Structures are given as C-alpha cells and as structure tokens.
Amino acid sequence: MKQNVAQKLISKHLVSGEMQAGKEIGLKIDQTLTQDATGTMVMLELEAMGIDRVKTEASAQYVDHNLIQEDFRNADDHLFLRSAARKFGIYYSRPGNGVSHPVHMQQLAKPGKTLLGSDSHTCANGCMGMLAIGAGGIDVAMAMAGEPYYVKMPKVMGVKLTGKLPQWVSAKDVILEMLRRHGVKGGVGKIIEYYGPGVKNLSAMDRHVIANMGAELGATATVFPSDNEIKDFLRQQGRENDWMELTADRGAQYDEEENIDLSELAPLIAKPSSPGNVVPVAEVAGETIYQSYIGSSANPGYRDFAIASEIVKGKQIASGISFDINPTSRQLLEQLVENGHIANLLSAGARMHQAGCNGCIGMGQAPATGRNSLRTTPRNFPGRSGTREDSVFLCSPETAAASALTGKITDPRTLDMRYPKVQEPKKFTTEGMLEAPPENNADVELEKGPNITTIPDFEPIKNNFDLPILLKMSDNISTDEILAGGSRVLPYRSNIQKISTFAFEIVDDDYYDNAMKKRDNGGHALVAGVNYGQGSSREHAALAPRYLGLKVVLVKDFARIHLQNLINFGILPLTFVNETDYDYLTQDDILEFRDIHETIQVTDTFDIKVKGKDHTIPVRHDLTKRHIDIILQGGIINWIKQKQK
C-alpha cells in the first residue's frame, strides 16, 4: 500500500488500534519534550508513579518560559527541574539556552521518530520528518514511563506546495494563508502534511515556522518530508548521521487536499484577537503601533532575525516604538552577534531580551494599554500578552521590521529599498546546549523549594448529582482565558492551590470565590460554545478548575489537547446533541445527572434535566472505554495507582 509521510510514521510506531480515522490508536513514543511551565508537574507525576528512569530514547527538559526571577519561585523551580532531570535520566537545557522547539530541533530531533511534548507547539518539530505532537503533561509523563500515547487516528490533509515565495513574503505568510482559508478549527482531527515541488524551496527553519502554527489550526500534527534540506540542516548542526530520507510514496493518497502556489502569496497579518483573523497587510496598513516584536517559536530561525537586521541596518526606528528582539536560542544569538546582526538591530534602536519565550506567553514585554502590538508570535488570544485589554497582530519578520521603521503597520513591499539577501551560516558550533543526565542516579535527590506542593487527591465522580452552571461562555475560549500565563501566574505552576486563584479571571473576576463556595457542596459545571480550550497544552487549565470543584464541562465541541486534559483529571466532557440547547441554558441553571456510572458505559448519548424547568437536554460523550475507566477512577493518577495494585 502506498503511504504518505504521516502514514509511514504512524504505521512504524503503531502498537494498538487500526489506522482508521476516528479510531483510537496507541503510538510508541521515541522522544519527549517538557518545558518549565509544564515540566514541574510532569516531574511530580513521575515521582508519584515511582519511576526510576525514563524509558524513551531521549527526553529533554527545557527552561524557557519562566525566566524572570523577581523572587525565589522560578529560581527554585529551575533547581528542581535540573535535579529531576538528573534523577529520571533526562537532558536538561538551562535558562538562557532558548525556546524548547528550535533547541530540540537543533540538538535532538531525528527524522522518522515520534516526539510527544507538554507544549502545544511541539508540532514544530514535524519540520524534521517527525511525528511531533503536543499533549498534556501527564500524557507525556506516561510516555516517559514507557506507556503508549493514545490518540484518535487523524485524517491526513495533504497540502501541495508549488512555486517559490516572492520577495518580502516568507514562511509566516504561508501558515497565515492556511489560517485565512481554514480558520482555527480547520486542522481539528487532522495531520497536515506538506508536499510537492514547492517544499524544496523552504529551508528547515521555514518549515519549522509553518509546522509550529499548525497548533493554531487545531491540528494533531504537521508533517514535512525529510529531504536534502533536512540533511543540510543536520550537517550544520554536526549531526548528519542522524539523517534519513522520508518522503511520501509516489501516488500516495490524502483524506483531504489543498494547494498553495507560493509565488502568489502576499504579506498577511492576523488581526486581534485570533490567529484565524487573517487579512492582507495592505488592508490594515497605516494603523499606528506601539510595539514591534521579533522572535518566538513561530519565527525562530537565523534568517528571521537577520532579515529584520538588514531591513533596519543604518536606519532608526520610529519615535516612540518599542522594537523588541527575542532571540530563540543561545546558538542562534552567538551567530547573530558574530555576523553583526545584533549590532545592526541595537543601532537602529531595538531592545534586546534573553533567549526564551518571554513576551510570547506574557512573561514581560506587555504592550501599553489601548495600543497596537505587532508580533511574530504564534498566538494573539485575549490577554495572552500580559495586558488584559490587548491589541495584538501576528505577522512576519519583514512586516514587523518595516512597521518598526514607520511606526505604523506597513506592507514591507512599499519600503524604498531592495529586498535584502541573507546568507545562512554553514555551521553552528555552540557547545553545552544540553546537559546529559548521569548514568548512575542512585544518589540524586529532588530539590524542592517551598512553592512546590504535591498534587491534590481527587475523588471519583459520583453516580447521582446536581451541578450549578457557574459560567456560560462563548466560542473559542482559550486556555489563556481559562488560566492565564505571564509573570503573575506561571511562577505558581507547582502550587495548584495558589494557581487556582487565577482561574477564569479574564472571563469572570468572581469565578474563584464562587467556585470555592460550591466546591464542598458538590462542585459545579461549565457551559461554552465551539472549540473550547483552544491553545496551550498547559494541564493547569484543567487541573486548577478541577481543584475548585469542576465536575462537568458541556460545550458544542472541544479542542483536542484540552479535552484529553479534562479526562486525565476526571472531569466529564460532554457536547450538545442539539447545539440550539446552548441558547436555552443560563448561568446558575442547575443540571441533574442520574445513574452516570452505568449510563456512560452503555451509551454515548443520554439526557440531562434542568432543575425546575420542563426541559431535557440530550448530550453526548466521545469517550473510549479507557477514558471512561479514567473518569470513573477520578483521573489518570488514580487510574495508574489502581492498575499497580
């Protein structure tokens, strides 16, 4: 049977199930990736499971999110993560090394392998001919313990690329074009595979840009072939022996087809406050900006910074503009310094920040109130920047640099200059990017500061119960709205009791207080529209509301990773059979659940009543038998403990 790249990767790693779209499959995981916003919980989960050493070929723990050390919390967590990496046999990337996704690509990524990461943008490494998937932390912990990763077999969307990108247009515009066509739900339940003659005109890092923001389409993964471009990239890194060719068989089929002629693309921009709100830059040109920001995992390559450097070289940015430069790895930063690009940017008036995620997840660089921020980051969800009422646009480095010069959104094609040419270095030689774990971990102790607490115990869901609807929300509620990132919140990622105080504050300031009043009286339910839980893989967005008594979430549909996180922590996820019933429900309605234990095991559709009203609402679950077992045990930690008895 002729196979595309995605099918080859899945079939090679399939340990259970059949490759039929919608059916649950189990996959062997070769590599894992954790970062500090999610990794502390993963390490605590490994400790709770009694794991001595991870079973994967390579696992890496990166420190890239929580770099601001305004008190002891982040610094303590960095020490804890290093000690856990040494104890469990994990590579460790210290603060300042850079963002997990490009560093992993540089140091460990291998064509033909699977990668599971506790960060939704793990899919970026699909640029290397890998099956790279973002997941909740506990799913990653299970994979590190040697368990398969379970996911419903996705459809494969083949995107045929032809032509070559014109001047002033770059890889960011390719993924923005996909978002313009398909929106933030266009990739749900799918792997997006790019193929065709246009692929050879995209560098490995160009592919990283495109694969990274497959998460914004809601895709399970993004896959590129492993060809000579990937071989050249690995040669740059001194890892040519890790290369293998991996391409689709001639005549391979796809479940869905899309075509993009790269030569026809123009500079694009995503307006506030969704990555799917894409228009041509020319349509919004002239809007005044406060900030222009270059960097993040969505534009992490050498050329992304070098092109901006060449655009502003010998010039000055507009008065009053904050031109923020966020290098994505120490390796990259060294090369940019060596070749004069950092000097060009600083001379033009740029602000230089340390290598890491930084403002992408609201960790500094928050924009001023009521002002526009132009960013090369992957997301512009409400409040993600750190400013509650923000106005963030997503664009390419070319557009960001051009706009920094003019002080307003600018189509880079209108600049009075030739399109700069950027020469990639032939070799990157940075040493010591990853610290290998010791072979003997017998004497390694976990270093826990006072902010690191144990994971709370959760009781299983009862058979009969009534739940008040504490919040009724709209469509596309993101995990940043459920539980914000940023320097106020993320330092408490190892303290569930404290981090829960920030839950849903962007949606309702009173949620925490109201939830605590209900928690000891049976808990509460939430209602929302479509694409609930889009965005980050942070399991805290399920764990914190669970701590506050959340038992059931009823929505029109879920984002993939958040759905699994809800299940992992024993929260029952339900969808409306008739979406019009969403309009009937109001906040503070009380939902009646009866005989739930038996009901969810024998049927996927059942009725719930609204107390005091003559109305019955049919609902549906899409749970496998394994999911149901986890729910009835009160979450995956209880489930694991039960299995070990």
From TrEMBL:
Biased composition (Polar residues): 370-379
Gene Ontology MF annotations: 4 iron, 4 sulfur cluster binding; aconitate hydratase activity; metal ion binding
Positions of region (Disordered): 369-390
Keywords: Iron, Iron-sulfur, Lyase, Metal-binding
Pfam families: Aconitase (PF00330), Aconitase_C (PF00694)
Domain of life (superkingdom): Bacteria
InterPro entries: Acnase/IPM_dHydase_lsu_aba_1/3 (IPR015931), Acoase/IPM_deHydtase_lsu_aba (IPR001030), Aconitase/3IPM_dehydase_swvl (IPR015928), Aconitase/IPM_isomerase (IPR050926), Aconitase_4Fe-4S_dom (IPR036008), Aconitase_put (IPR006250), AconitaseA/IPMdHydase_ssu_swvl (IPR000573)
Biological process, per Gene Ontology: tricarboxylic acid cycle
Catalytic activity from the UniProt record: citrate = D-threo-isocitrate
Top EC class, one word: lyase
Domain Aconitase/3-isopropylmalate dehydratase large subunit alpha/beta/alpha, residue spans: 8-285, 287-407
Occurrences of domain Aconitase A/isopropylmalate dehydratase small subunit swivel (ranges): 475-578
EC nos: 4.2.1.3
SUPFAM superfamilies: Aconitase iron-sulfur domain, LeuD/IlvD-like
Signal sequence extent: none
One GO CC term on file: cytosol
NCBIfam families: acon_putative, PRK07229.1
Subunit structure and binding partners: Monomer.
Protein name, as recorded: aconitate hydratase
Organism: Gracilibacillus thailandensis
